[in-house]
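Hi Y.,

Following your request, here is the sequence exactly as I used it, all 451 residues.
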Amino acid sequence: MVADVKSALKEFSALLGEEHLTTDAATCSTCAVDGKVPRLIVYPSTAEEVAAVLKLAADSGFALIPFRNRTKLDIGNPPERYDMGLSLKGMNNVWHYEPADLTISVEPGLKLKELQHLVARDRLWLPLDPAGDGQASLGGIVAANASGPLRHAYGSPRDMVLGMKIATVQGKIIKTGGRVVKNVAGYDLGKLLIGSYGTLGVIVEVSLKLFPLPGRRETFILQPGNLGIARDLRRRILESPLSPLRMVLLVASAGTKLRVDAPRAFDSSRLEMCIDAGGSDSMLMRIRTMLEGIAKELAVPFESCNAQDAENTWVHASDFRRWIGEGHPQAIVLKICLPISASEQFLSMAQQEAENAKARMAAMSLLGVGIVYVAVLDSLGAADGEHLTRRLKHSAENLGGVLIVEQCPLELKMRLDVWGEPKDDYEIMRKLKMAWDSRRTLAPGRMIGRI
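Below is the corresponding structure, written out as tokens. Let me know if you'd prefer a different format.
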């Protein structure tokens, strides 16, 4: 049904107070998703208010999308309906912090950089570097299972979540897991919410496992002459005793200058492998010596980054999609999950497909993880963009991988499912959606198969 904002506005006002909602057109337009603008934004401040908002929205026939800083709102299919936005910016509390136990429990609106600042005084950190440059909220990070190059050493949010509280469209708050590292074995309901992009329920509290900060950090740059040498480098490093924190391979089409303010590792038509290492002085010295030895055997230039270059490089690598989008708003950015051994082969295929399409390409491979990001920088038009995307999807599937369109012009989004074609598990996903959100209140149409 078509949601009637005016008739329900009094109920939302009574629930939250007039100061915690807005129908201002300018504010609502900042929360638009794929051309759809909500007519109402609400700002609950407690878990109970979130649950009550979800139930009222469902009962009123409203479709809503939860968010905090909107760093991931453009990921997913265009919403089928979008009547209201649920902002979690007012939920920033830290409910529990035990440095000795390496655990913390926070509300979903707390920003990653705020958490890092809090725990750094105890020489701890949450080793995640997702898109958003620290502005991403913990709730959004967990809901999207968002990670970056640090996934190489530490895994994804799914590996760090100890427990959660989840608000549902039935107006309930479900608790799963706990606040300690050792929990009772069994099926963890919370895992359903991790990576669901807010389509099943809204995370209102999350408990996380923390890690000790490395003593020192150093970034090393290697310059393999081609993808074959890059493959040999990857193999040698992964088979060695080395334990880098993160390791990426950066690729740009010949002659492509991605952005004028790009860090040195991106401002190049060469292949560049960036390796972030951490530990004591003696450990870093051993890592440097071993990397120099491998580089020398393969005749690959090797150097160490200064601190500022290293920071810039990893900020841009972690935020690859957004950084590319700022310089190339019509770019198509693809995320490909592959067997680790197939990364260089896929990059070679992608380079050839981009060349055939007469398009410039930039790419980043998370070595040791099996995730490749490919950005087609030129505006191709919807038909040509769809053709290239489907060709790359076919190449990924032939190598045992899957391809997701993370960013593209709306015209292209309307022509394909950004998650790919539904597979055998689609019916299970559809039934889960119906069990959690039978009236399709939460982000309808945004997930695979437009459920």
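The domain at 216-318 is CATH 3.30.70.3450 (Alpha-Beta Plaits).

Thanks again,
Q.
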